[in-house]
Structure formats: structure tokens, C-alpha cells
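re: ur question from yesterday

yeah so i grabbed the chain u mentioned. its 196 aa long if i counted rite. heres the sequnce exactly as i have it in my notes:
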Amino acid sequence: MMTRLPRKFYARPATEVAPDLLGKLLVHQTELGLRIGRIVEVEAYLGREDLAAHSSKGVTKRTSVMFGEAGHAYVYLIYGMHHCMNVVTGPQGSGSAVLLRALEPVQGLQLNTSGPGRLAKAMGIDKRFYGSDLCLATSTLFLADDGHRPDAVRRSPRIGVHYAGEWAGRPLRYYVSDSKWVSRVATVSSRRVAAG
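ran it thru and got these C-alpha cells back, copy pasting raw so excuse formatting
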């Protein structure tokens, strides 16, 4: 049995929400049936001060949802072709979010789910879901807990944020170390996250 994550789960700092998302389920009720994947890799983005975060540029049409209420979806397009999904975290106005990077397929997923663009494509997530409230009982896209907890979680620097100066090396990527679905094995030393 799975339980939809409540808003209070998201209304915490991204660095707390990110590791807690590992093992949770991303669920999309489509016209063709349920698509479900277990989250195995995420990245935390910490708001205005984080030079790797889209919200570092302030409130724009693109980033406005990041400054809103926690528990909403921030979906954007990269390279003109790939959608990526984040969940908004923290207090309103913080501009923080967690990027979903990889899923372990659970149900109804036929495509590769390793990497944020492939994850969104496999789950049927696109710009239509920008700003969706993941906490509403009527939402067809949401995150849920079925009691599963990963055995080993590690941290490493985020992927593809070399432009972000000192922020590029911060260990804000969290992943399940024994999952074959993780998008990329860390090329620099990673740290094990203590169980809480």
C-alpha cells in the first residue's frame, strides 16, 4: 500500500527532502494506466544563493513556481527537447527544489528511466505539469511512500553544473549506491549518508 506524500514532507530544506526522496515512488495515472518508478537518484538545489539553481536569477516566468508553496512540480525543458521534473521544497519564497534524476521501474514503464530527461519521457511528464500540486488527492501525478527504505545512500557533486563556481563541487547529489538505474557513477569520491 502506498501513501501520497503530504505537504509537510516537502516543506523542509532541500538537503533534508532530497535524501528522504530516495526509495519513494513517483506515480502518474495516465489514460493508459499507472506508471510507477522508485526514486534512486536526486539533486538538491538550494535557492537564490545556489549558482547552479535556476532560481539564482530570481523570480521569472520560468522559476516562479520554485518560489511558491512546497509540494508543487517544477518542470522545464532543456536543449529544446528534454523535460526535467523537480519538486519544490522549503518555505515559500526560498526558491529551492529537488531534481528527480533516476527511477527504478516498478509498473507500466517501458522506456529507460536513468537520467532526468529519460525519466520524464518514460513517465509521460512534460510542461503540462508545470506547477502541478503533487499533494492534492485529485492529482494524477504525485509521490508516494510504500515503506521501502534503501540500504545504502551516497552523496556526490551534482552533474553538469561546472558553470556554478564553488557550488559545482558541493555534494548535493544523493543516490542509492547499489542501484543499476542510477544515471552515472560518481567520478570523484562520494560520501556515505548516515541512516537517520
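noticed a couple things. Helices lie at 7-10, 14-21, 116-123. also The mean pLDDT is 92.
anyway ttyl
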